[in-house]
Amino acid sequence: VHPNVSQGCQGGCATCSDYNGCLSCKPKLFFVLERTGMKQIGVCLSSCPSGYYGTRYPDINKCAKCKADCDTCFTRNFCTKCKSGFYLYSGKCLEKCPDGLEANNHTMECTSIVHCEASEWSPWSPCTKKGKTCGFKRGNEVRVREIVQHPSARGNPCPATSESRKCIVQRKRCQKEGKGKKNREEKRKKSNKDESKETRQESKGRAARRQNREQSENNNKTQPKKRKAPNKEQTLAPIDTAH
């Protein structure tokens, strides 16, 4: 250390020298040596740079270097991020993941192998042929299922999500487009027509019965009353029994 130690330092240094830079740091700052060619210069930082981890002591806080395969670390023996070509697993940086794990090139970590999972099959669809459910005897029916968990790189692949099989249905005729509606309309009109016809017939019947009743009453009024026939017993003469 250069003997010329200054107390009026810049950049968070508590003590410093012209040759070695910071010799000690102000409270809560970390002391780290940065190499410049063949020379090391002391600096004081609020946090340790990449590749270093911080240690706190009563007299000084220092930044220590991580292991060579660590990009960042919590302690020397516990990495939090690995350098390129290594995969993080339980605080260690490995070139190859252990059995039962796989390398994740996105996070650069060793992760569990995830297999594909599918839902239960849906019920079979109605039997169809060329998109129709009528006009044929043999057709096809299908069922489907969904993927609920996609696999990882080394996981088991997903199965088929649809199945089809032959089916037989009782042949039935297809109604022409608009024919069903037309038939319903015709039936409705016919029903209304029949109801109207019955109503008219009932009205005519009531009118005829009323007319007959009125005519009968008129005939009774105009026809002369018949004279009552005399009693036979009264018209016969008495038999003479004297002879």
TrEMBL record:
Name the UniProt record assigns to this protein: R-spondin-3
Comp. bias (Basic and acidic residues): 175-216
CDD domains in the record: FU
GO MF annotations, alphabetized: heparin binding; signaling receptor binding
Domain of life: Eukaryota
Family according to the record: Belongs to the R-spondin family.
InterPro entries assigned: Furin_repeat (IPR006212), Growth_fac_rcpt_cys_sf (IPR009030), R-spondin (IPR051514), Rspo_Fu-CRD_dom (IPR043601), TSP1_rpt (IPR000884), TSP1_rpt_sf (IPR036383), TSP1_spondin_dom (IPR044004)
Gene3D superfamilies: Hormone Receptor, Insulin-like Growth Factor Receptor 1, Chain A, domain 2, Thrombospondin type-1 (TSP1) repeat
Single biological process term from Gene Ontology: Wnt signaling pathway
Annotated function: Activator of the canonical Wnt signaling pathway by acting as a ligand for LGR4-6 receptors, which acts as a key regulator of angiogenesis. Upon binding to LGR4-6 (LGR4, LGR5 or LGR6), LGR4-6 associate with phosphorylated LRP6 and frizzled receptors that are activated by extracellular Wnt receptors, triggering the canonical Wnt signaling pathway to increase expression of target genes. Also regulates the canonical Wnt/beta-catenin-dependent pathway and non-canonical Wnt signaling by acting as an inhibitor of ZNRF3, an important regulator of the Wnt signaling pathway.
GO cellular component, one term: extracellular region
UniProt xrefs under SUPFAM superfamilies: Growth factor receptor domain, TSP-1 type 1 repeat
Disordered: annotated segments: 169-243
